[in-house]
Design goal:
This protein has two domains: about 230 residues, Aldehyde Dehydrogenase, Chain A, domain 1 (3-Layer(aba) Sandwich); about 190 residues, Aldehyde Dehydrogenase, Chain A, domain 2 (3-Layer(aba) Sandwich). By secondary structure, the protein is of the alpha/beta class. Helix 2 runs antiparallel to helix 5. It contains 15 helices and 18 strands. The chain binds nicotinamide-adenine-dinucleotide. Nicotinamide-adenine-dinucleotide binds next to helix 7 and helix 8. The site of nicotinamide-adenine-dinucleotide has 27 residues, from helix 7 and helix 8.
Length: about 450
Amino acid sequence: MGHREALRRQRDFFKSNGTRSIPFRVSQLKRLGEILRRHETALYEAIQLDFGKSRFETCMTELALIHGEINLAIRNLPYWSRKRRVPTNLANFPARSFIIPEPLGNTLVIGAWNFPYQLSLIPAISAIAAGCTVIVKPSELSSNASHAMAELINEAMDPAVIRVVEGGAPETTQLLDERFDKVFFTGSTSVGRIVYQAAARHLTPVTLELGGQNPAIVLQDCALPMAARRITWGKFLNAGQSCVAPNHVWVHRSLEDELLSQLRSWIQRLFGENWSSRENYVRIISDKHVDRLAALIDPEKVFVGGRVEREERFIQPTVLRGVTPEDPVLEDELFGPILPVLTFEDIEEPMEHIKSRPRPLALYVFSRCRRTIDKILTEVPFGGGAVNDTVLHFTNPHLPFGGVGQSGIGSCHGEAGFRTFSHFKSILDKPCWFEPFLKYPPYTRTKQKLLQLLLE
Ligand code: NAD
């Protein structure tokens, strides 16, 4: 079935109020959860083919998060979707006021390749929970995973509710020509711009989950071994191909040597001397990305790693030292296993640098000093982040996840995801037994005084 036919069915189904009832939405979410569990071996194998990734890592970074979102939505749907009473102001007396969450309608989710399942399916879960229909367009780069997802979902789910459409830029362009009621995009800032413009033609609201250069700031008073350990894990998970991976580290000059040696020992401990062991370290997604990353490794600055095996699409976890803000390696988001380390004397230096660049998706601060932590959290703009950790704020569904400025518009996960696919319809409900004379002509000074008293 082509995307036009799927969209036609979804439009008809939505118009017929098919998605409105909460039990129906719950049944769809349950079904999705069941088929993902039943066929999880196929899903694990596809990711293995795309990335050489272990089952453990796919479970941790993809499937467990998806099931967590499904369960959270099922548990909370009656609460999230309830009609809410709000107070009524005096000028409108007597009346009741309430807000009704309403599904936006027919939606499109465009996914990125780096976590192909969860980046496509978590927004789709939010869409179904909110009572929308959804067409999911995963990335063509993670082709095995996208294909596995399409086969599974298109076989087992009702196309009037959810349909996976495979393809790259041309297919996405065709989809964007259609009128949707919401477009949810995850990917690069440059394609985000294209999607935003295409959606604007139909005045379709968008959520854009984009990238950025996420800094980690390591202060003098931090718990250093733990900082090094958590930075190593967050950076080299998925070989750095995570939107929330620390892009680079700013470390106080006095700690530079110690941090570098701790990073080296954690890399060795987590991935082993013989780094080509495939079990715990994933591949780079394509030759093009291997070449892009290899060109960014300045051999003069390599402190750890630096080895590239192009035919295997492996790049060793690499740490660069002596990097300055002007180096080419800091021009764009790295999105790979290269960790540049920069030093500072005064915390104002990294803060100034971050503020003068596009707003990052994430920021990580390592310190024991509440005042400095609060200063950074309140003065530096960024999407979200963690104190004394990396990446894991993404995994708490109670935290709305999203960027700001060039790192994105809007948010997802948990209730934030439900809200993203909902419209909040505001209603003032009035009885007919009372109608004050105030608002009607003739307009007099006394009426105006009374009106001001009520409204101001
Ligand atoms: P991408 O922008 O190249 O592709 C994203 C999607 O857009 C894919 O489905 C692709 O098929 C489609 N696409 C590509 N070119 C297109 C075009 N010209 N017209 C229409 N559609 C097009 O991004 P990517 O390489 O898949 O992902 C990497 C980027 O995504 C990084 O910048 C990363 O930071 C970001 N990202 C952000 C998040 C987040 O949650 N904020 C999560 C993961 C990745």
